[in-house]
């Protein structure tokens, strides 16, 4: 056989698109969100993102070596995991806990299942779910956005010694003398005090929250760009958002003083980031077109159910993990009918 | 009548050691997972559970071994369960008498020793065919292996989840406990990690043995 001639089955026409190119584009789309996060929360957010990414990459490198799979770091997928994980954590999250989250996410969520393409759930969310269960206090400690001097000093809890409790930030926050700071995110204020912050502030991200989930507007732009580049299945984010809005609408119509408006639901918390960048995880979401829509609606609705009736303030993380878990089932339910095959195959048995 | 081949094992150190390592009930045979996951949130609970199970295991195996020629084959499982249940009742009252606190912590899992596969497995697979002395040594080894495994889980979970070991604090006061470790998921995580370690060690040993065989074969 002559060299350079490849004999293989169809498809013979391939798009010039490789895994690492897709992943690089996603990283590129995430960079503006990271930049805004650093602008908003300062050096602490920068260190947080660097730590999660570095630990995720190191973990991937170690497991790839240990399993003799060759270098899988260069496909960039693990960089996405690291960045996404960092973006979902509170800006003052102790770095050692962030490192634990990144290690658990990549090791337990990805490497144990066989690496990229085999992970059942989104690795970044596996890592976050682990630290949510392990360190519930640290992961719900919020610090104000746009603190003065955020580029000169770190949030005190960032540099907590490993295995130690996070350094309390209450005194530091009080020293900032920021008006109207209550130590809660807009979601928590809505949930427990039933006060909706101005939707424009929440939408553009001028609020407290996790490092990279505050600006719904910016995430929307980056996500749309990614969809325009055909790097994600736009059905998934759109149906997640539609599911959340549809679920929230009847409650808001019944009692607007108690329940959040659909608009607030869409722009607050981590829903936007999760819908565009996490639910659309190519490996862990259903492959069929109808399946993708069912999966998205399911995640959106579950998020609102957890937010409104669960003990937690934000539910999108668990909603996506559950969505990932039922993804294969949805895929098998929505298999397209083979052309020419009869529907009543059962009768012939 | 034809004489049956003698399947009785000779007493060697291996009779005891097998339970600790090669046939460890938890890490190799994956038996009795219920108490392994449920009561290992602290070292003390793990140790108490391990000792209680060992006591029931040794006593019931010996009794089964003594009665092995009188128990009809058709009702053997029921008979074993009655024997095991007798000793579980003894342990149940015993722990209640020694420490009510421990009894409350272990909860229903003391009574559930009766359904522990390790014990029934020993009775069926070993004690019903072997002499009293080897049965005693073998079941003691199995019990020790089970206790060891429970302790392995219990210490890791207590150190990470509480910062203590047997209630003694190991870290400075501002240690951050990993709450997930004393919750049920922590049990699965730690068990998985230990199984990973054991399987890795076993595979490495096997690989070394095959390599050695390969080398000697080559030398010939």
Automatic annotation (TrEMBL), chain A:
UniProt xrefs under InterPro entries: NqrB/RnfD (IPR004338), RnfD_bac (IPR011303)
Keywords annotated in UniProt: Cell inner membrane, Cell membrane, Electron transport, Flavoprotein, FMN, Membrane, Phosphoprotein, Translocase, Transmembrane, Transmembrane helix, Transport
EC number: 7.-.-.-
Membrane-spanning residues: 21-39, 95-113, 125-147, 202-227, 234-254, 260-279, 291-310, 316-334
Primary localisation category: membrane
FMN phosphoryl threonine modified-residue sites: 185
Source domain of life: Bacteria
Compartments it resides in: Cell inner membrane
Any one Gene Ontology cellular component term annotated for this protein: plasma membrane
Reported cofactor(s): FMN
Pfam families on file: NQR2_RnfD_RnfE
Its membrane topology: Multi-pass membrane protein
GO biological process, one term: electron transport chain
Family: Belongs to the NqrB/RnfD family.
Function of the protein: Part of a membrane-bound complex that couples electron transfer with translocation of ions across the membrane.
Record NCBIfam families: rnfD
Subunit structure: The complex is composed of six subunits: RnfA, RnfB, RnfC, RnfD, RnfE and RnfG.
Protein name per its UniProtKB record: Ion-translocating oxidoreductase complex subunit D
Species assigned in the record: Imhoffiella purpurea
UniProtKB/TrEMBL annotation, chain B:
Record's signal peptide: none
Keyword Transmembrane helix annotated: yes
Membrane topology summary: Multi-pass membrane protein
Keywords: Cell inner membrane, Cell membrane, Electron transport, Membrane, Translocase, Transmembrane, Transmembrane helix, Transport
Entry keyword annotation includes Cell membrane: yes
Domain of life: Bacteria
EC number(s) reported in the record: 7.-.-.-
Cell compartments where the protein resides: Cell inner membrane; Endomembrane system
CC per GO annotation: endomembrane system; plasma membrane
Entry's Gene Ontology BP terms: electron transport chain
Transmembrane segments: 20-40, 46-65, 77-96, 102-123, 135-155, 175-198
Enzyme class: translocase
Family in the record: Belongs to the NqrDE/RnfAE family.
Quaternary structure annotation from Swiss-Prot or TrEMBL: The complex is composed of six subunits: RnfA, RnfB, RnfC, RnfD, RnfE and RnfG.
Function, in words: Part of a membrane-bound complex that couples electron transfer with translocation of ions across the membrane.
Identification of the protein by name: Ion-translocating oxidoreductase complex subunit E
Organism, as annotated: Imhoffiella purpurea
């Amino acid at each position: 056989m002559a060299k350079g001639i490849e004999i293989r089955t169809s498809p013979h026409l391939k798009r010039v698109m490789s895994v690492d190119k897709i992943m690089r584009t996603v990283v590129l789309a995430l960079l503006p969100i990271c930049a805004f996060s650093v602008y908003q929360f300062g050096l602490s957010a920068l260190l947080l993102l660097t730590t999660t990414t570095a630990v995720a990459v190191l973990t991937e490198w170690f497991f790839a070596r240990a399993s003799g799979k060759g270098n899988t770091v260069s496909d960039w997928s693990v960089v996405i995991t690291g960045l996404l994980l960092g973006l979902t954590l509170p800006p003052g999250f102790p770095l050692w806990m962030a490192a634990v989250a990144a290690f658990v996410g990549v090791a337990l969520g990805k490497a144990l299942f066989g690496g990229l393409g085999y992970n059942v759930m989104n690795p970044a969310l596996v890592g976050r779910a682990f630290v949510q269960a392990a360190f519930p206090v640290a992961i719900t400690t919020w610090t104000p956005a746009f603190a003065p001097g955020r580029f000169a000093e770190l949030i005190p809890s960032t540099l907590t010694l490993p295995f130690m409790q996070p350094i309390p930030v209450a005194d530091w926050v009080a020293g900032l003398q920021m008006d109207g700071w209550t130590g809660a995110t807009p979601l928590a204020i809505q949930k427990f005090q039933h006060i909706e912050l101005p939707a424009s502030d929440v939408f553009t991200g001028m609020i407290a929250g996790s490092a990279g989930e505050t600006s719904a507007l910016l995430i929307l732009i980056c996500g749309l760009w990614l969809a325009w580049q055909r790097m994600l299945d736009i059905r998934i984010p759109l149906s997640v958002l539609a599911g959340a809005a549809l679920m929230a609408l009847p409650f808001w119509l019944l009692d607007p003083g108690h329940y959040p408006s659909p608009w607030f639901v869409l722009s607050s918390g981590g829903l936007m980031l999760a819908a565009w960048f996490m639910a659309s995880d190519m490996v862990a979401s259903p492959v069929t077109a109808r399946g993708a829509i069912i999966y998205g609606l399911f995640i959106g609705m579950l998020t609102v159910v957890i937010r409104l009736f669960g003990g937690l303030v934000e539910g999108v993380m668990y909603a996506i993990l559950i969505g990932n878990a039922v993804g294969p089932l949805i895929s098998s339910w929505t298999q397209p009918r083979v052309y020419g095959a009869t529907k009543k195959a059962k009768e012939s048995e | 009548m034809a004489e049956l081949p003698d399947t009785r094992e000779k007493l060697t150190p291996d009779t005891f050691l097998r339970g600790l390592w090669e046939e460890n009930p938890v890490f190799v045979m994956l038996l009795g997972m219920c108490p392994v996951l449920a009561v290992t949130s602290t070292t003390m609970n793990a140790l108490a559970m391990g000792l209680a199970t060992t006591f029931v295991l040794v006593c019931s195996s010996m009794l089964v071994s003594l009665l092995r020629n009188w128990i009809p084959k058709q009702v053997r499982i029921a008979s074993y369960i009655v024997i095991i249940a007798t000793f579980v009742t003894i342990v149940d009252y015993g722990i209640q008498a020694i420490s009510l606190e421990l009894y409350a912590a272990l909860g229903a899992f003391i009574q559930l020793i009766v359904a522990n596969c390790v014990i029934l497995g020993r009775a069926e697979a070993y004690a019903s065919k072997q002499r009293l002395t080897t049965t005693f040594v073998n079941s003691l080894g199995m019990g020790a292996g089970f206790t060891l495994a429970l302790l392995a889980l219990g210490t890791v979970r207590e150190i990470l989840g509480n910062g203590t070991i047997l209630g003694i604090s190991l870290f400075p006061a501002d240690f951050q406990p990993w709450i997930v470790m004393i919750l049920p998921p922590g049990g699965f995580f730690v068990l998985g990690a230990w199984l990973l370690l054991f399987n890795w060690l076993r595979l490495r040993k096997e690989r070394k043995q095959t390599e050695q065989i390969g080398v000697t074969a080559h030398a010939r």
